[in-house]
């Protein structure tokens, strides 16, 4: 199985007129979430391998969403386990 931890999922928030995103804090939170999950899975006896995807282009909003199209480049963290 595989799980991904994207800083946009936890650190991105729409406001009334634009958005808020603290990249450094969101990246720290995503990395911590990945590492905590890896520790949890290892404690349950799973074999876990962690990885990072480097900088990925992630977008939010856009056509049909009622929000402007926003693109951010962020690292995405992941783990595989079995």
Walkthrough of the structure:
This protein has 82 residues and is α+β, with helices and mostly antiparallel strands. It has two helices and five strands; from the N terminus they run E-H-E-E-H-E-E. The protein has one domain. A three-stranded antiparallel sheet has the order 1-5-4. Strands 2-3 form a two-stranded antiparallel sheet. The N and C termini lie close together (6 Å). The mean pLDDT is 97.
Summarize the structure.
Helix content is 32%, strand content 49%. It is of the alpha+beta class and 82 residues long. The strands form two sheets. The protein has a three-stranded antiparallel beta sheet.
Which descriptors would you attach to this protein?
alpha+beta, 2 helices, elongated, 82 residues, two-stranded antiparallel sheet, 3-stranded antiparallel β-sheet, single chain
